[in-house]
Specification:
This protein is α/β, with parallel strands linked by helices. It contains 16 helices and 12 strands. It has helices at 5-23, 27-46, 55-59, 108-124, 145-159, 178-192, 212-229, 247-258, 281-293, 301-304, 335-343, 359-367, 375-378, 381-395, 401-423, 433-452, and strands at residues 64-73, 79-90, 96-102, 131-136, 168-171, 239-242, 262-268, 271-274, 309-312, 323-325, 348-350, 371-373. The protein has a 7-stranded mixed beta sheet with strand order 9-8-7-6-10-11-12, with helices on both faces. The protein has a 5-stranded mixed beta sheet with strand order 1-2-4-3-5, with helices on both faces. The radius of gyration is 21 Å and the shape is globular. The model has no long low-confidence stretch (mean pLDDT 98). Bound molecules: NADPH dihydro-nicotinamide-adenine-dinucleotide phosphate and (2Z)-2-iminopentanedioic acid.
């Protein structure tokens, strides 16, 4: 069907009004849906096979959303009560797949936005994975290892009945890393009495995949490199601002350093550090020990590296850089931060976190026609390597580091190609990675949903 721009706008607005009526109290979820609807609905209108089937309306409704009570006992003997969740968004192309987040801000809006984005992201990886997300409002900060173990065991004592290696395969996200996956896996194995690949991000001696810990950060850098190559450029010699100092930020920094870039910032929720000399391999090893073993704060960096500075309660985007990589959390890069980045010469933004740029920031980057990759394309390397972990578990076999890294690179290259196929304006040559990722992600899931009928 051919419609005029104002007629398309009426369709998009009509759809969003309906979604807002149903989910008015879920701002992050609405933000994620708006971005998809604005790019995908015009495509649906132009393609008769998708038109009139209410596919997007079906995709914004979770197939199932589970909320449950998690009781556990802290080190003082007090009974604590948290909320646990699993949003099973879409299983058209494979079992539900997506991480678990433990953070006090976790609620249905956050998890539905993450699960919705995950559907498109997982589709882009080319692997057979549906989309889901879960977690808890549990705050791991300041908890002892024993408290973390008791909480994870309590959480899994309910979640286990809703997941399985062919049903739903959770993994890590904010606040859930190797330690937590171990405790969760242990309880699942005990309750089901089976050793299966029900979780990814497992340890190397019990079914994990090499490169999974590195994959999200590495993949985000591989994607940035692909974007820069479209301009005949590369990471080498570039100054890079990274936010966050957790799993994604650490390995994004490692890969930037390996490729000859200079990382000058890292952050956490209390502020950011600036090291104008560059965070080299040795300094990054210090950060990894600080965050992963000592579970300390990033501000401690400046006590050891006294040339560096700490800026409390600020984000790194006020520093001049060529490439920005937001790797902490949603909506951490505002419109005014985007303006500052542009003013200071930034030409490439590769999102390691999920939806870190606000709507205003994305609009500013796109208007300026800089290289901008949305998380669902650029951070897909993590879940893609989870998919490779599932494959290795099914084969009861392990690939080498080089084999997994090669496959990860190929997948990121494929995602980049798809963004070009669906997002490149042939007249101007501009690649709209948001449009490309949304439409390419949509097409695979929509085709599967059409084939399977109204279920
Ligand atoms: P981690 O828990 O390892 O690290 C999170 C980092 O982000 C920490 O430095 C944390 O600081 C910071 N952070 C968290 N919340 C906030 C906040 N509200 N404001 C400022 N900083 C904050 O998580 P990951 O590195 O795994 O995840 C980071 C992002 O990447 C998330 O958006 C996640 O969804 C996304 N992602 C993760 C993947 C993975 O494989 N792990 C895959 C794809 C995307 P503090 O310690 O102070 O809380
Ligand atoms: O947001 C994400 O893609 C993740 N947290 C990883 C999910 C996974 O299943 O590996």
């Amino acid at each position: 069907m051919i419609l005029k721009p104002n007629e398309i706008k009426i369709k998009v607005d009509g759809f969003l009004d309906l979604v807002r009526q149903r989910n008015g109290h879920e701002p992050e979820f609405l933000q994620a849906v708006e971005e998809v609807a604005e790019t995908v609905i015009p495509y649906i209108i132009q393609n008769d096979i998708y038109h009139g089937k209410n596919i997007l309306l079906r995709m914004v409704e979770p197939e199932r959303a589970i909320m449950f009570r998690v009781n556990w006992v802290d080190d003082d003997g007090e009974i604590q009560v948290n909320r646990g969740y699993r949003v099973q968004m879409n299983s058209a192309i494979g079992p539900y797949k997506g991480g678990l987040r433990f953070h006090p801000s976790v609620n249905m809006s956050i998890l539905k936005f993450l699960a919705f984005e995950q559907v498109f992201k997982n589709s882009l990886t080319t692997l057979p994975m549906g989309g889901g997300k879960g977690g808890s409002d549990f705050d791991p900060k300041g908890k002892s290892d024993n408290e973390i173990m008791r909480f994870c065991h309590a959480f899994m004592s309910e979640l286990f009945r809703h997941i399985g290696p062919n049903t739903d395969v959770p993994a890590g996200d904010i606040g859930v890393g190797g330690r937590e996956i171990g405790f969760l896996f242990g309880m699942y194995k005990k309750l089901q009495n089976e050793f299966t690949g029900v979780l990814t991000g497992k340890g190397m001696t019990w079914g994990g995949s090499l490169i999974r810990p590195e994959a999200t950060g590495y993949g985000t850098v591989y994607f940035a490199e692909k974007m820069l190559q479209t301009k005949g450029d590369s990471i080498k010699g570039k100054t890079v601002c990274i936010s966050g100092s957790g799993n994604v930020a650490q390995y994004a920094a490692e890969k930037i350093i390996q490729l000859g870039g200079k990382v000058i910032t890292l952050s956490d929720s209390s502020g950011y550090i600036l090291d104008s000399d560059g965070i080299n391999k040795e300094k990054l090893a210090f950060v990894m020990d600080l965050k992963n073993n000592k579970r300390g704060r990033i501000s401690a960096y400046v006590d050891t590296y006294t040339n560096a500075q700490f800026f409390a309660n600020k984000t790194p985007w006020e520093q001049a850089c060529d490439v920005a990589m937001p790797c902490a959390t949603q909506n951490e890069l505002s419109g005014s931060a985007a303006e500052t980045l542009l003013k200071n010469g930034c030409t490439c933004v590769s999102e390691g976190a999920n939806m870190p740029s606000t709507k205003a920031a994305v609009a500013i980057f796109q208007k300026a026609r800089i290289l901008f990759a949305p998380g669902k394309a650029s951070n897909a390397g993590g879940v893609a390597t989870s998919g490779l972990e599932m494959t290795q578990n099914s084969l009861r076999y392990n690939w080498s580091r080089e084999e997994v890294d090669e496959k990860l690179k190929d997948i990121m290259g494929n995602i980049h190609d798809k963004c070009i196929a669906y997002g490149k304006d042939e007249k101007t040559g501009y690649i709209d990675y948001v449009k490309g990722a949304n439409i390419a992600g949509f097409v695979k899931v929509a085709d599967a949903m059409l084939a399977q009928g109204v279920v």
